[in-house]
Every structure is written in C-alpha cells, then in structure tokens.
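Entry for the shared binder. Reason: the reviewer on the internal report wants the predicted structure included alongside the sequence.
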Amino acid sequence: MRRSTIAIVLGVVLIGIVAITVLWPSAPEAPPPTAAVAPAAPPASANKTVRVEYKGIPDLTFVLPADKAQAKPTDGATYASIKFTPSSANATLKIHVVANFYSDQDSEAVLAAFRKDDPTAIYVKSIAVPAGKRATIEDDFTTPAKTAGPIDFDFRVGPAKPGPVLFNGPRDANPAPVSSATVGESG
C-alpha cells in the first residue's frame, strides 16, 4: 500500500508541475536585434544643466596624484558621474565642482575630473587640509564638448599621498557638508 500511495502522490506532483509550467504566463520575449526601437529624443531643455550631490562621509584611502600629468581615471575614488549631451560639438561646457575634505592631521586632498573616453584629466586641483579643519575646493572650469553626443564625466577625489582624509567630514558636522558636480553649457 505504501508504494501505491507514493506513486499517486508523485504522479499528482508531476501533473501539478506540468500544469504550472503550461499555465504560468511567460515573460515577453525580447525583440530580435533587427527590431530595435530608437529611443525618443530628450526634450530640448533636458540637459541644460546636470547636477549630482554626494552626502556620504567615506574615508578616502586611494591616492590621487595632484599632478595632472600623473592623475589617472582609476586613481582616488569617484564621488560623482554625470552624463551630459551638449547642444553641439562646438559647445563650451562649464563645470562647477564642490568637494569637502577633513583630516585629523595635516594632509593634502585632490579633486580631478575625467571624460570617460579619455585617460587624461581635464581638471585637477589640490588643497591643503589642516589638522582638525575642513577644507573645501569650490571651483568652475570650462572644457570643449568635442562631440554632439552624450559625454560621460567622472569626478574623483583622494589624498595626494597616503594618509587619512575624510570626504565631507567631520562625521559630526552639523549641518553636514555636501559635495557636488554640475555640468552645463557656457553662455
């Protein structure tokens, strides 16, 4: 009697699995690559200005050289990434950066900006960070668009040499500082 009960239960389970498989709605299939649909163009005002804020308070441990010729897009740590589409390849882009640093000991912090398609920094600035004080880089710079298509920017921060630097510190600051990057067109 036990074998027949097991066989019946197993049969019911298998029938249930088949029924679920047949009746369960399947996910829609992706269109074939040749049937790709072009995305709608963004409204004309979509990329007048793009701003990204960073409110975290991480320890910066990866060195970012203060020398523009030595800074690489893998140095330091990213605090903002922005995709911006200029109105034309001839546009001049205006970039505004704010980066806050803190350290318990005298240090130097660095901010660098990169186009993700270029290993050379388009901007590098360093600042002395006195022990127990906040230091802020707030600056504007321009760069040519060079393309009418989307441009990916990466904004990176780090200590100029090994040593403790806190981004957006100190941790108990009230109000807490906010670092940011803004990309728009000049004029």
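Summary line for the report: The helical segments are 2-23.
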